[in-house]
Amino acid sequence: MTQELTPNLLIAGGTILNPQTGLKTDADIRIENGVITEIGANLKQKGEAVFNAAGKMISIGWMDMHVHLREPGFEHKETIITGSRAAAFGGFTAVACMPNTNPPIHTRDVVEFIIERAEKTPVDVYPIACVSKNRAGESLAEMADLAAGGAVAFSDDGSPVQNSGLMRHALEYSSMLNIPIINHEEDLALGIKGHMHEGEVSTRLGLPGIPGLSEEIMIARDILLAEYTGGHVHVAHISTANAVDQVRQAKKKGIKVTTEVCAHHFSVTDALVESSGYHTHTKMHPPLRPQSDVDGIKKGLADGTIDAICTDHAPHASFEKEVEYISAPFGILGLETAWGLTGREIIAQGVLDESQAVHKLSVAPREILHIPVPEIKVGERANLTIFDSTTEWVFSAKDIKSKSVNTPFVGSKMVGKAWAIYNKGTLVDNQ
């Protein structure tokens, strides 16, 4: 993985994929001072660097709308720089980062700090600010000021908004700003001491569980509140088949609800907790669910109920994860493996085609967050991901670019590879 400032670049021999139309065009792309100046066949080199994209696809840069970069406050787990490095390896030119930092992203100065720190990376970083002050669920954060500073959404992620009155007011205020509320959908009283999915495997292992019902009850509440207020609720990391159906029915009624799914929730099941020998790298929140829920998620992707694919990239230091299962924090890495899992589980299995999958990783996240969608056309700043959906490879420890290593996918087969990104006049080559 190499990164270099490359304001002038010729990307030669690739196929441009438009995820909005599905159109594929064989063409070279010339970039000068970070701007696309020419698109066409067999372009001649003019002294600039050349990236050989033969056999590869080129799309607008991908975006992960749900990551944890940990900075400020938890730099021992991840930093904006190291998280961006992991994002670039995974094919992402943009991420939106969650506010469970220290201090939390509940004041404008923290929003601006994150944006400023990210200027040094080839990845665009969009802060998601808190719904409530200190993520305590008691009083609303200063939403208008946070939005003015650059926040693209509001969430107390990891601390679900339990107070229905507060959630109502949050939706009312955010609707005036045309910004979504992203909620970690969980009624904590139903699974506050749980460590994995409540079901057959948890019963056999003797581990307290988190029922899918806890997610579904909260989604039902938020859909009703969105309908009542006219606000936009975004369901974070959906994980059950019933939850997908709730969103499906709400959309049919015209309620402003969108949702995302993490790659791990359509790739593995709660059986991995047992087969891994209680490895804490299988502990995440929401937890891994049974096969019936994985099937429901894939159905939701196929019929368009699920808008976006994300990662919930959640790094933790080794000393935090190398403890007993019940003592370990929730969360796994996701940026480096998202595309390989999508290729393996979604494209190769015919759930979505290549264009549809890229749409859920590039266009949909930006549309949900009201961020301008890049275009591959002359005169536009180059914001690109170079990839394929067929290369088979095995994810290894050396492929981890995060500061942490908490992933259950080391040694797992991947299908599809992100070969490079180009953004902010910088080429990051993963070859």
Structure overview:
This protein is an alpha/beta fold. The chain has two domains: about 1-55 and about 380-400 and about 415-430, Roll (Urease, subunit C, domain 1), CATH 2.30.40.10; about 60-370, Alpha-Beta Barrel (TIM Barrel), CATH 3.20.20. Helices cover about 30% and strands about 20% of the residues. The chain has helices at about 80-90, 110-120, 145-150, 165-175, 200-205, 210-230, 240-250, 270-275, 290-300, 320, 340-345, 355-370, and strands at about 1-5, 10, 15, 25, 30, 35-40, 50, 55-60, 60-65, 90-95, 125, 180-185, 195, 210, 235, 255-260, 310, 385-395, 415-425, 425-430. The strands form five sheets. A seven-stranded mixed β-sheet has the order 1-20-19-18-8-3-4. The protein has a four-stranded mixed β-sheet with strand order 6-5-2-7, with no helix packed on it. It starts with a strand and ends with a strand.
